[in-house]
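User: Thanks for the earlier help. One more: Protein disulfide-isomerase a1. Can you show the sequence and predicted structure together?

Assistant: Of course, both are below.
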Amino acid sequence: TSNDVVYRELGATKDGVMLFKKFDDRNTTLDMPITSESVQKFVQQNSLPLVVDFTNQNAPDVFSWPTRQYNVLFYSNKSADFEEVLANFRKAAAAFQHQVLFVTIDADNENSKYILWLFFVAEHEVPAQRFVNFQVDFMRYKPRTASLKAEDIKTFVQDVLDGKIKEGMPPLDLLGDSEAHPVELNVDDNFEEVVYDITKDVLVQYYTPQCPRCKLLVPMYEALAEKYKNRKDVVIAKIDITTNEVERIVVHYLPVFKLYKKNTNAPVRYRGEATVEELSKFIDTSGEYGSTYPTPVPRNLTEDEDEEWYKEYQRDEL
């Protein structure tokens, strides 16, 4: 626009790009030269609130955050100092806007238990914070103190960024003491033998080692394998699609779960929440439960855009 009235109403002092939001400071101005790359990064960095409460619905947006660095607060609504801790966390987040995404996770939610386990947070420690860096690998950092005062939170995050705190978590493959593990499949070795065994229901997770969400789901999938370890007619398996090219498999979003039904080997794609409870229902009903999408989350799309989005995600990819 070149309308002076609009400039005054919006508080704009010069030509530029301004993003309007429904949260935090409501609008933000791009403070760097206007290029397609800078505008794209600007929009992406400002597409989420200063502090994000993690859910299955916003997981793709969280994991696609540009810097892929997160400070995570595990909280409990039952905690007497819940409001104070959340206020401190939010205050600290303002100091790292566009550099580190501050994320909260409800520790009281049953589906959060495996994330607590993954970050080595005992339930009695909640509220507690951990820093995670997905830039190279799944790097997790624990603060030296349990204090959740705003200044202590800022000090912890800055120390991680400055390299003053080293990663202090055991390697992922040393976690847990489960006796059962998902069967690792290989196209050149055991894929057809395991997957196309008509005497068994075979659940296969298609994943990549680099996928952040896949890493977070490791303990959940291990727990699922443990649950079915004594079932002779069920196999819990997984396959790394970066090292295995599986014919007729097209994957647009990871991880993907498919159940190959006994007697027919007919594949059914799972479209529900990735939890032990929900995947168990999927297995126990031979793929009937969880095989269709729930009502799509509103995305502020036009009618035509929404129709195309829905068609894409409804498409069976096998």
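User: Great, one quick takeaway?

Assistant: The first strand starts at residue 18 and ends at 20.
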